[in-house]
Amino acid sequence: WDCRSYNxxxxxxxxxxxxxxxxxxxxxxxxxxxxxLSDECNDICGKKxxxxxxxxxxxxxxxxxxxGFNIYTLPVTFKDILxxxxxxxxxxxxxxxxxSLGDLLVGIYMSIISVFNAYYGRDYCQxxxxxxxxxxxxxxxxxxxxxxxxxxxxxxxxxxxxxxNISGGLQLPVPISRKKVLQNLSISATVIILSAFLSIxxxxxxxxxxxxxGLYHGSQVPLFIxxxxxSDHKKVLEAYYGRLGAVQLSWEMIRKLSSEMFSRxxxxxxxxxxxxxxxxxxxxxxxxxxxxDPQLIFVWVTHMMQIVAFLLISVAYIxxxxxxxxxxxxxxxxxxxxxxxxxSVTVQRKVTVIVSTDFACWIPFIFLCFxxxxxxxxxxxxxxxxTLIINPMNSVINPLVLNSKITEIFVAPxxxxxxxxxxxxxxxxxxxxxxxxxxxxxxxVG
Length: 446
Known about the structure:
The chain is an all-alpha fold. Helices cover 64% and strands 1% of the residues. The chain has 14 helices and 2 strands. The chain has helices spanning 53-83, 87-120, 124-132, 135-166, 178-200, 208-211, 230-241, 251-262, 296-330, 334-373, 383-390, 393-402, 404-428, 437-445; strands at 214-216, 272-274. It has a two-stranded antiparallel ribbon with strand order 1-2. The relative contact order is 0.10.
């Protein structure tokens, strides 16, 4: 919004209810300056939970596909676990089940956000503070982060186990053993616990000084407009209590001191937390942080874990591909050679898709996060594009790549319809009769 195009008849220089003066440069600047939000929610500017219509459409489609594909995959994979006769198949099915579970949670998150976006509609701007501080926002954020972590860590574990098994060359299938079952269960439990820890810790009250981004005291306290940070609170508290010096205020101290300030006139005030997942309208992990952000270390430790995971997946599948190709060459029997060669090509295709989609979805995004943190590039406007479209695509692609039955049921019919449509178009197109040489020569002479 360009302040030079400001029309005072549309948006007066003042808050709508309190009539406080609002500089034109602070109208529609993304920062709340009026208790009634009229500087940000008016006829000039306003917003929905999902900012663009095309992102909203993608969110619906990806959410429905992710939920549908993975709901189908989960019982099929669970049945394969129960019917597994060899250790290799049991291991693969176990982690494929976890990958599908994580992708299903991401799909559920996408669907929930789409529903709430439709529910609030254009009224969201006025309701945004209540949504961002709500437990629902934190819950769907935890659900999304938990699902992404389970999927990434499970794929990493599966890749490393497959690479380890194939590095020793082709081996006869090994029956399931008690040791193998316990090993898989322990790795699966580690994946789930680590994912839950990374997802829930920003919400845990014990660590609020690191993860709470502000306190919202309601719309009746003019000293605190919108969710106020620690520095905002300190300025107000110093004006009331006197200079606080270099004291590092905790949120507990801020709640106590501010409650004493307003205990008589306001009969106490509310202290509603703006949690870690309330950093954006769609309640996702706080991927974009600045250099002075208290969550900087945690966010970048998480980013580095994701980078290492994707690198391990890539290295593991490359080693699987090389080992498979080498084993094919070493086999003397021609029939067996052809079978193994076909399997190698299948593995190669899966490697290409998995590695390319992982890198295409996450590595550019993490690089964008780095540029944002360093202050080189403000990537805020691309936030929802990555968190609602690009990154969740893995939750749709993974079941297609890892489960051939999904492809047979959902993709193959579409491919057949496309082929049939092409054939019909070719039949409908006019056939041009070839021109004989004599006629062409006569036309040239004429």
